[in-house]
Amino acid sequence: MCSEAHFDKIVRFEESLSTAGVRQGTIFYTYHVTATGWALSADAQKVFPLVARIIKGDGTLQLEQRMQLGPEGWTALNGL
């Protein structure tokens, strides 16, 4: 295990309608990450710059997830 990420807070939510009239939206959120082991190594972070960016963005870097409202509530849309 190199790290664990945990949800921090929702920054904002933007809702829209798809072309089919389905309610969709994007949730923007921040996270906290606890890096351990090789992920803390400066050499590893040079080889894997995305790992370094995630660790340095702890609590401030915003991630986003597309969502869609269905019969079971809001669910994540993958691959978009």
Q: Care to give the gist of this entry?
A:
The chain is built from 2 helices and 4 strands. The chain is α+β, with helices and mostly antiparallel strands.
* Overall strand count: 4
Beta-strand share of residues:
over 45%
In whole angstroms, the N-to-C terminal distance is 27 Å
CA radius of gyration is 16 Å
Poorly predicted residue ranges: none
Task: Give the fraction of residues assigned to helices.
Answer: 10-25%
**Any idea how many domains?**
1
* Largest sheet features: 4 strands, antiparallel
Shape: elongated
Mean pLDDT: 88
Q: State the strand order across the main sheet.
A: 1-2-3-4
Q: What is the element string, with H for helices and E for strands?
A: EEHHEE
Structural class: alpha+beta
SS element count, helices: 2
Please, could you describe this protein's structure?
The protein is of the alpha+beta class and 80 residues long. It has two helices and four strands; from the N terminus they run E-E-H-H-E-E. It has helices spanning 42-47, 49-56; strands at 3-17, 23-35, 63-70, 73-76. Strand 1 and strand 2 (23-35) form a beta hairpin.
Offer a few descriptive terms.
alpha+beta; 80 residues; elongated
